[in-house]
Amino acid sequence: MTRTTWAALLRGINVSGRNRVPMAELVSVLEGLGHTGVRTYLQSGNAVFTTDRAAAGGGGGADTGSVAAAEEELAAELEAAIERHFGFAVPCLVRDHAYLAAVERACPFPAAELEGKQLHAFYCSGPLDADRFAALDPAVFAPEAFALGDRALYLYTPEGLGRSKLGDALGRPAFFKGLTVTARNWNTVRKLVGMTAGA
């Protein structure tokens, strides 16, 4: 059976002392679900693991429906396991290498010319359309800018996300209503692509 490497992206952990999830314990939780090759990156909720669940991802021609079903099933299992282990809920997204690499390739901003802190990917549980962001006037925030991708939003912040007015504006719940969303800077985007490829 084909084994697939996935990335688990946890939202909102280890921030301001809330929802503390030590990475060593996260590894144990994932291993307890039967996953192998578990590795983490940074303390902000990035884990990579391998499983024989479905013939998903990897760019090997698996159909989109089976990949999406595996993503949802793996994420739901991880969310339930985290809540059992830590006693609080943590929204999770699970994505394979093919998806992560496609998001990196499709970036409309000159990623190679930017520092990691200047560019972010907001990974989303479902698709985004322009209507969600109709209330935002991009000209007000220039040179900051955003663009939509495949279940992702790209955010360019020349001064970094911490000083970004556009980032603050996008933080309004209405823009991502009904979706699980978690952001990663471009250094992490690249790292996860490499880790899921086995690099």
| Radius of gyration over C-alpha positions, nearest whole angstrom | 17 Å
Q: How many β-strands, per DSSP?
A: 8
Q: Give helix % range.
A: 25-40%
**SSE sequence, one letter per element:** EHEEHEHEHEEHEH
Low-confidence stretches: 55-61
* Overall pLDDT confidence: 92
Estimate the strand proportion. Answer: 15-25%
Terminus-to-terminus distance: 22 Å
Structural shape: globular
Give the strand order of the largest sheet, numbering strands 1, 2, ... along the chain. 2-3-1-4
Tell me what the structure shows:
The protein is an alpha+beta fold and 199 residues long. The chain contains 6 helices and 8 strands, in the order βαββαβαβαββαβα. The chain has a 4-stranded antiparallel sheet with strand order 2-3-1-4, with helices on both faces. Strands 6-7-5-8 form a 4-stranded antiparallel sheet. Strand 6 (145-149) and strand 7 (152-156) form a beta hairpin. Helix 3 (97-105) runs antiparallel to helix 6. The longest helix is centred in the middle third of the chain and has 23 residues, at 64-86. It starts with a strand and ends with a helix. The model is unreliable at 55-61 (pLDDT under 50).
